[in-house]
Write a sequence for this structure.
């Protein structure tokens, strides 16, 4: 465990944001549009000394600037930071375990009830000034949980990778549902062919039958062949994965 004393300066969140806007000649009306708020409401918002961390995160994302790094004093030139949707309650609980401190003991030094601490560690958004106090009490900079250093060439957010992985899982699930659906369709098509004596081999005789729609029959065989191809390729892929796993 790092015993180095964590030093965090006092801050005014609204002033940090205003300073950034002024330095970059960004009107408050622009931030208002990004947040979907009326400009007067944003003006009032920026007078606040504190804000919830989720709101700071949203503003950081909209303005493409890491205000958590500003709060931490971590503004070294040449560094790139990627934002993270941190679960601060979990981090606080982990820090208490590191310190071998009970929730009751923390409640006493934080001057709240144990029940409030229990609710606290279940939260994922905190008032920034309250989080400052907790950081000082537990000697851990929880604001740094909202970002990490990244090289400019690999400036990808963890949340971005998580989104990609989640979408991949969704596509796999969608593919499985599609395969199940097509298996059912293919099974019914085979039963139809069996019940009606339909096959591509007797195509010539089929199209000569009275009342047979040639285009519909052609579409039927085209669909039949392509579903079979999809299912065969899918089975081959599954077999390859199983072989690789074994």
């Amino acid at each position: 465990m790092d015993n180095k004393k964590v030093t965090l300066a006092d801050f005014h969140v609204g002033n940090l944001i205003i300073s950034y806007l002024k330095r970059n000649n960004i009107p408050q009306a622009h931030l208002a549009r990004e947040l979907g708020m009326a400009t007067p409401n944003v003006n009032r918002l920026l007078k606040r000394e504190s804000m919830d961390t989720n709101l700071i995160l949203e503003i950081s994302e909209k303005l493409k600037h890491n205000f958590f790094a500003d709060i931490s004093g971590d503004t070294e030139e040449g560094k790139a930071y990627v934002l993270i949707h941190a679960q601060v309650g979990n981090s606080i609980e982990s820090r208490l375990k590191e310190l071998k401190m009970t929730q009751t003991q923390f409640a006493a030094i934080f001057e709240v009830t144990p029940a409030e601490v229990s609710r606290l560690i279940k939260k994922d958004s905190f008032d920034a000034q309250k989080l400052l106090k907790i950081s000082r009490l537990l000697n851990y900079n929880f604001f740094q949980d909202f970002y990490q250093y990244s090289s400019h060439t690999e400036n990808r957010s963890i949340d971005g990778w998580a989104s990609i992985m989640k979408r991949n899982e969704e596509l796999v699930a969608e593919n499985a549902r599609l395969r199940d659906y097509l298996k059912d369709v293919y099974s019914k098509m085979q039963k139809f062919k069996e019940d009606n004596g339909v096959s591509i081999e007797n195509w010539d005789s089929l199209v000569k039958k009275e009342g047979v729609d040639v285009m519909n029959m052609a579409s039927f065989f085209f669909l039949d062949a392509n579903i079979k191809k999809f299912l065969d390729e899918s089975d081959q892929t599954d077999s390859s994965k199983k072989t690789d796993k074994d």
Notes: Residues 152-158 have pLDDT under 50 and may be disordered. The first helix runs from residue 13 to 23.
